[in-house]
Amino acid sequence: xxxxxxxxxxxxxxxVAGLTPALEGGHLGDLTDDLVDAILSEAGRFATEEVAxxxxxxxxxxxxxxxxxxxxxxxxxxxxxxxxxxxxxxxxASPDFGGQGLPHMLHVAALEMWNGGSMAFAIGPTLTxxxxxxxxxxxxxxxxxxxxxxxxxxxxxxxxxxxxxxxGSDLGVMKTRAExxxxxxxxxxxxxIFITYGEHDFTxxxxxxxxxRLPDAPAGTRGISLFLVPKFLVDEDGSLGARNDAxxxxxxxxxxxxxxxxxxxxxxxxxxxxxxxxxxWLIGEENRGLACMFTMMxxxxxxxxxxxxxxxxxxxxxxxxxxxxxxQGKAPGWQGSGMxxxxxxxxVARMLLTMKVLTQGARAITYACAHAVDMAHGDEAQHWAxxxxxxTPIAKSFATDAGVDVAxxxxxxxxGMGFIEETxxxxxxxxxxxxxxxxxxxxxxxxxxxxxxxPLSDGSHVRGFIAxxxxxxxxASAANAPQLGETGARLEAAIADxxxxxxxxxxxxxxxxxxxxxxxxxxxxxxxxxxxxxxYLAKGALADGGDGRNAERAALCRFxxxxxxxETAALKDRVMSGAASLEAARVVLE
Amino acid sequence: xxxxxxxxxxxxxxxVAGLTPALEGGHLGDLTDDLVDAILSEAGRFATEEVAxxxxxxxxxxxxxxxxxxxxxxxxxxxxxxxxxxxxxxxxASPDFGGQGLPHMLHVAALEMWNGGSMAFAIGPTLTxxxxxxxxxxxxxxxxxxxxxxxxxxxxxxxxxxxxxxxGSDLGVMKTRAExxxxxxxxxxxxxIFITYGEHDFTxxxxxxxxxRLPDAPAGTRGISLFLVPKFLVDEDGSLGARNDAxxxxxxxxxxxxxxxxxxxxxxxxxxxxxxxxxxWLIGEENRGLACMFTMMxxxxxxxxxxxxxxxxxxxxxxxxxxxxxxQGKAPGWQGSGMxxxxxxxxVARMLLTMKVLTQGARAITYACAHAVDMAHGDEAQHWAxxxxxxTPIAKSFATDAGVDVAxxxxxxxxGMGFIEETxxxxxxxxxxxxxxxxxxxxxxxxxxxxxxxPLSDGSHVRGFIAxxxxxxxxASAANAPQLGETGARLEAAIADxxxxxxxxxxxxxxxxxxxxxxxxxxxxxxxxxxxxxxYLAKGALADGGDGRNAERAALCRFxxxxxxxETAALKDRVMSGAASLEAARVVLE
Lengths: 590, 590
Hints:
The structure is a homodimer of 590-residue chains.
Chain A (H helix, E strand, L loop, with lengths): L5 H11 L2 H6 L8 H19 L3 H7 L2 E3 L2 E3 L4 H10 L18 H14 L1 H20 L2 H13 L3 E5 L15 E4 L5 E11 L9 E7 L12 E6 L1 E3 L5 E4 L2 E6 L10 E6 L10 E6 L5 H37 L20 H30 L5 H33 L11 H8 L9 H12 L6 H20 L7 H24 L3 H6 L1 H22 L7 H14 L4 H10 L1 H6 L6
Parallel strand pairs in A: 3-6
Antiparallel strand pairs in A: 1-2, 4-5, 5-11, 5-12, 6-7, 7-12, 8-9, 10-11
Helix pairs in contact in A: 1-6, 1-10, 1-17, 3-6, 6-7, 6-9, 6-10, 7-8, 7-9, 9-10, 9-11, 9-12, 10-11, 10-17, 10-18, 11-12, 11-13, 11-17, 13-17, 14-15, 14-17, 15-17, 15-18, 15-19, 17-18, 17-19
């Protein structure tokens, strides 16, 4: 059973991702180290004791649709109620509407733990928090007063309605339309697919944020507006009124996250109300809907990254426990009686350590990204905003790929038992698979990284970041500690690979050779993630956690340097000279 | 829908794996090129038109247990009947008992296609063929006369009963026991788990081959005997007699291959018959059961490798079809109207080409292995037997890892649709995951490769093989063809990595540093597979298939050299200097 890794999370936040310096520098208001520990500890307890025990039934029963209503798995509505009453929905929300105004770092740490308990459960509340962010940033006073307090308390949940059958990665072609009404409201007509938690029985009302196009809107992404469409209209006194003309038509039969209802939502087909059309209110300005969404897009991407970290940690925990218990054969040097625990076999240890490295690397990258988000509210706002922008695609992609890879290794460690659903390793393998896809596929992240993030400040931001990584490697080399093995030298080599690939991409983009740069985008993104994994593990190994685990961190860091990150050379090579053969090989696909 | 890639299979058999030279050298009896084409074509037709259409219902319904009987998915019993009547069960079996005595190469080619149609269906007949092999090689005349004709015709199926709850990879600790009876039969008592097709409604009788231990047997693997235990006893005239005391207690709820019943089998608990004990007949000698199983172990491992190839090909076909149809965004340089098909995006093309390379590499390796099996029956038997031995673990592991990796990429190419079960990409991702586990996990394969296969003929076999690979690379370099890009040089470098890692392992084993060698076994196995992928693609690219696809093959070969096999350097490094950090990092797992 999943146990939230509170200590490792706290260490990573404080000593790797920058929480302690931020606290000491007074960048996080009244927040204290003690409060951080208290929040992490309680979030961990909730994830371990309340969420995790309901993961399996959620997977097995799944969300069920009958007569337009979605029945959630047994025990889940009560779990949600406990979660909301615990105040977890309001962690980062504005105190103006009942939120706690805490840093994003604490939010992602808590997110990791809830997703570790059950990804299918945690994704629902995550979307509400996203809807709160968009509404808080762009909603009218009236909308904010009417909806935010109840969404922040968790009394109502939110949903995000972007995708349509022909508009997924490319939202410019969406067809859902909105018509203006004289009273300032709008009427929406259309179909949205893949709407996570579009319908459920957790809350009485659901606040849908819906992208749609006005009749006179410009074509493409500049003609999309964002609307608030509640399931039930809200009367002036805040009580629920008539049912709005918006409902769930069907839910998907998915590979994983079965407990999460993935809905096809129908707006305005006349099923409810006096006249057809779902009643909506504009959020922000007309035709500026995508800009409103972008407010929360980065945070949503990071939130999906946390799912990768969470699944990876859960899979690693489960595999280690099994490998200690299961005996089979005799490992070299085994002196015990009978068969060895399989963890003694070098190959099994290699799998488990690789899982540890990928998990910890993904955690460090995502937390560093959250730290940048927090710091972007203070001095040096541009620097930190750029850092958050740069790290977001890497955090999303590296962590979600790690989720899949680690979950797959977790199945492998379990042998035949891993293929049996009751063991639970298979559920993680199934759940993990969506994370590299939604909130922008990892391929989209790579395009974003290369074409929009590398050029920030004319490339000087990424260059500055690489200089920071060089400093970590130099410190590792200078430490010359036997327990770090060849960490310093190997990290230097990996960073040099990153640097060369970065300069090549910047030059290639500057020369307008877009296709060539894009051909290497995914290898580059992976290269960046591996380098950051090595660097952040080294940063942790060079810090003193004061928890007696310094030797462990050094050993894992060395293993990463000598057994995991060595692909950087091949990845650099692919970035810098892979495009021609890729283009030439297109003939194979015809 | 899956379409058996008959042309690519024929090309690989003939021009890469060695079928044409073997035919021309007269090593395959009366077999002609025309007959090969006819068999491949008809096997392909059956896989495409008969098997593939029933894959989805097999996954959705699964095998269902009620009252000890397993009901197979709708349409599957008729499919099996058609398959057996088509003579597919008898391809490689001895003509003495009604078989066709065809080479193993044709068998694996057909296996690939049936598994491409439905892995859950194809695995059943595969196991029967394994049982036929063991019985033909080691059974008494009486057993062979009684069982082989009906097993070869497909009237009865077989099952292989090895695993017990505490005896999976390590069979030495199994507990199922056999007692001698005065009439020369035995009575078996025990429980077997994970028994594929242990019970079903395809055939009236099921011939279980069961490993068990005699009361006076030596401990460990040298005390295991093999028995034939039919579901129904067979009367002298060949008709079915009494029900034997062997039955299916339960079936597993699995991640994938739902149509394949995975049974817990109970032997001898008294449910059937006058006295407890399942009646069995010894196959081969007492206590030599594992040797009998080894006869077919290599072939079974290769058969699982074919599942990897099959899933990879099916996933690639599906992803390419989707990527051509689905439009989204505008790829760089896109001149068409509206959105581009996603195949135009470089990142999607990279995924698809990588899938192609891994599939084709896995196919070439597995077919080369089957070729060695065939050649081991002629002159130079030892050479070819060693080649088959060496290639088997690589074929099994590389192809099954490719199955998982390619199926995962296939889901990714589909975006959100990939996560929806109805699309079918998710089924392949689920089905694929068992293949790296069963018939010896890929970690076990790596141990076998390093500790038993490299030392064959004191290392001279593997050295000779590497020399053959050098010759291919030299030919690629000498061709100096622009369409091959840097193939020659990169292949040379990869082979040099393999050579260095091989020599290091041989030396390390010779010095008795077993643990150190085993720490690098999995990276070495992967390194070998990548090198073979590059070399076999080059061999194909340098051949003339006479089918107008030479340019395609050269382009894919170049893509492999420049974009896929570059990890060999990092893998070599991991083999040769990864063990120390692995051992040191064990502290992390405590």
